[in-house]
What does this fold into?
Amino acid sequence: MIFQTFGHQRFTQDSPILPDVWLAYAKANKEIPIDLILTPRAGHAPGAIAITLERRLQAYLGTSSQELRARALIAYSRSSVAARLTFTELLRVVVPMTSWWRNLPSSYRSFSAVEDRLDDLRHERTEFKRIVNTSSKWDYFRFVVLAGFINSWREEQQPEYLAEMLQSDRSNFSDIRTVAQSFLHVLRSFKPIPDDGIGVEIWNISLNRRSQLALFESRPAIKADAAENLFKISAHGLAWAVIDAGIDAAHPAFLDRTKYPSPGKGNEIQVNQSRVKATYDFTYLRSLLALGAQNFISATGRAVKISRQQQTELQDLRRRISLGREIDWDLLLPLVEVPHTAAYEKPAHEHGTHVAGIIAGNWPADETEEDHALIGICPDLTLYDFRIFDNTGDTEEFVMMAALQVVAHLNRFRNNPVIHGVNMSVSIRHEVISYACGRTPICDECTRLVGDGVVVVAAAGNQGFNQLLETGGGEFGSYRVASITDPGNADAVITVGSTHRAQPHTYGVSYFSSRGPTGDGRRKPDLVAPGEKITAPIPNLGSKRMDGTSMAAPHVSGAAALLMARHRELVGRPTLIKQILCKSATDLGREASFQGAGMLDVLRALQSV
It folds into this structure.
């Protein structure tokens, strides 16, 4: 079905191309490539799809493999393929690789089938909605009409009826035939590509969405100080991955104080003395996968020292990728690892260090520039730094998914996991026109990781309040419900909203905190934690006060780590940990769609087991 689309209206359509993709191409100028995620049909390997896509694009474009990789940046992971494609490449090269296309009757995929239906409409002028909502024989025709409409729009050759449709009466769309002819005109200009022997199938095509950063008096508020004094918990042997903008491992807040003495006030630590066990920079992973290690290094000039043994391994990696086989992270991780040596590269952005400090910082008062200590929720926890945001605070969904897959890879021996939890203080606005709520690619990846026994904590997002412009030029505020962002919409993750750092009963849920329920009616957030004016470490011996659900989520990560540290039998049981944290939360007397189960209470959670 195709419904009205522009403004606040919506597409739903029985083709594999999700509505956000159609709209992205409609907004783009002519043949601007759009970054897409191709999800394979069950049983079809992403690597095989990537290789087939590259072969078909080369046949269509007539370019060299290296030129194609540099422009399209085709890369694949365990669950998906990322590629930058133009509109004609999408229609001519990718759509014939989909299950939807291959399941259509062969007669529906011919030019004559479309032209016959156009002839049926030669003298008709009828309602668009009635035509496209008829029987299943119109599936392909609806696709053609929509593709023709988008093409007309992009080429700025809209006939008069397109402008009329955007006026007050948008339900009437009279001349379908002209729009479909626009598509046929473009389709005939495509270079033919043999479709025989494709052998792989794509299930759907979505946007590779961009993500944003979801921007201590809070310890007493959640009773973390009381829990520490009562139980004397040690988190030795437990580790948390902070998937964010990077942690400054040279910051004294992350010193392993069980092994090394204090560096004193105003001094950094040696990186090999840090509780940040390892640092991985995923910001250039896409280019690395697309271009191959050697070509990537030569193209970017990145200073990566490669031994003779690694040279051999990289040749094997390139061969595996060229064959479409599953990625061997053991070969790839050394290339994205940031060495903890004298040449250590600090993160350019402060967000990840701040988040990590809330989870596990330990900065005594005599070392800080503050008048008090900065102590995190679980101050002896080991950390892993997964950098997914570049210096501008930007990342893509494909990279986020790959980082989660690396956690699963490191934990491949489930009885002895390397990483026990993940904190994702990130925010992707949920595209309701394209995805079932909680079933976006990043949500599905989080769900798989929880199924592997890893706790995943996500920020609810900061979309709870909008500042809007009035017609006269003034501003007014508007609160928003059902504003939870991804991956917080995933049912399996622990989604955290924000409350006041010290007086949650008085001030309730933060005005900016995204609110539930989810788009499909589930209660979210799961609970709230302090997220207003939270002071924590930042790079280069600094500290800073920040607001956001980004600051609330790490409180819950720290609490989950404390639970596992106190009750080791909870390791590998993220669903039970979520239940314990929610059942022991303190009711703030607010709507469940605002507060979830209530305010995080670490002491009660520990005592309830």
Remarks:
- Residues 1-12, 121-136, 157-174 have pLDDT under 50 and may be disordered.
- The chain has two domains: 19-207, 210-284+345-607.
- The first helix runs from residue 19 to 27.
- Residues 19-207 form one domain.
